[in-house]
Amino acid sequence: MTRILIIEDEQDLAGLVEYNLRAAGFDTETANTGAGGLARARANPPDLLLLDLMLPDIAGGEVLRLLKQDPELRKTSVIIVSAKGQESDRVQGLELGADDYVVKPFSVRELLLRVKAVLRRADAEDGPAQVLAAGDIALDTSRHQVRVKGAEVVLTALEFRLLRTLLERSDRVQTREVLLSDVWGIQAEIHTRTVDTHIKRLREKLGPAGDIIETVRGVGYKLSPP
């Protein structure tokens, strides 16, 4: 049974979410502090984490950073559930490694749909291991690792997914809207500038090797192998 850990200090909200997730067939556990949530995650790694940003002890962003640094937990899917709803907040959360971002107040039905979408995406990414390569870039799906000329390059979860998508669709133009849908899932409300920002940062991390990601003016992006 898929296991979901809820880190939320509003006990009424945590109880409501837990009740509905259990009704949908998930195994759930709750924690009302960041430290408590990390301890539970390390003791029994969940498949998915629902994370509030404003916790009484450790900020949710720090919880996420520590989670992604832990080799045993770094692949855990994370959905941030927060009252902080500015675009800059959502983008920052996604850049830290979250898979999705839900703004409070939210409908339980929407949250369930997003949970299922993130889990489906995780299952797809856990498919047959493969190494995708173009030029000096090699991406190992099983190790969740990217190397440029043999040297490892550390990417966020979104940057990794973005590069993987471009490699899998090599030489095919991807519009910003398609990338938002396929890389960010159902996060279509995020402005298309977000795609441009992530492409820019991905190129910077890849160095000269990132030049194979081409801008198709007025349309989107294309990865053109040398």
Molecular structure report:
This protein is α/β, with parallel strands linked by helices and 226 residues long. The chain contains eight helices and twelve strands. It has helices spanning 11-23, 34-43, 60-69, 87-95, 108-125, 157-168, 176-183, 193-206, and strands at 3-7, 27-31, 48-51, 77-82, 100-103, 131-134, 137-140, 145-148, 151-153, 174-175, 213-216, 220-223. Strand 4, helix 4 and strand 5 (100-103) form a beta-alpha-beta unit. The model has no long low-confidence stretch (mean pLDDT 88).
Name the helicity range. 40-55%
Number of strands: 12
Order of helices and strands: EHEHEHEHEHEEEEHEHHEE
Rg measurement, Å:
18 Å
Percentage of residues in DSSP E strands: 15-25%
Q: How are the strands of the biggest sheet laid out side by side?
A: 2-1-3-4-5
Features of this protein?
42% helix, four-stranded antiparallel beta sheet, alpha/beta, five-stranded parallel beta sheet, 22% strand, 226 residues
Helices, strands, pairings?
Layout (H helix, E strand, L loop, with lengths): L2 E5 L3 H13 L3 E5 L2 H10 L4 E4 L8 H10 L7 E6 L4 H9 L4 E4 L4 H18 L5 E4 L2 E4 L4 E4 L2 E3 L3 H12 L5 E2 H8 L9 H14 L6 E4 L3 E4 L3
Parallel strand pairs: 1-2, 1-3, 3-4, 4-5
Antiparallel strand pairs: 6-7, 7-8, 8-9, 10-12, 11-12
